[in-house]
Amino acid sequence: MSRLNVVCGLFGAAFGFLFAAAGFNQYDVIHRMLLLQDFAPFLVMGSAMATALPILWLLERRRWRTPLGGELDLRRWPVERKHLWGGLVFGTGWAITGACPGTASTTLASGSLLGIVLIVGMVAGIALRDIVAERRPLRSHQPLPEPTRP
Length: 150
Hints:
Mean pLDDT: 81
Structural class: mainly alpha
Low-confidence stretches: none
Order of helices and strands: HHHHHH
Distance between the termini: 38 Å
Number of strands: 0
Shape: globular
């Protein structure tokens, strides 16, 4: 096992621990958040974004190299219809289950049987998306846009 895998595993475990500490692996916490009865989860997510965005901007501006040796290259994509549909499906699943992929894995790791249902549902959703994508060819065959630089 490489040192990078160990470091990534430790960061993942710490991230999961923080998710659980914030209560994001509990359905009631997410449900109250989505009903706008508890704003603490929004504040946690907002603080994470307020921390990450300036750091990523600075690292990209200084042409920071990733741990694998590549240049940090954050792509900016225009909003497309598929993003809106994906957001709708994701949001619906989040509202029904009270979990996103991070919280689903944390729920499973915390020993909750609901975690199994969540992971199975995510895998089924990914498989269904792949089936739909194979049957529906892309409408445009234009090359992907080049990333924009600030």
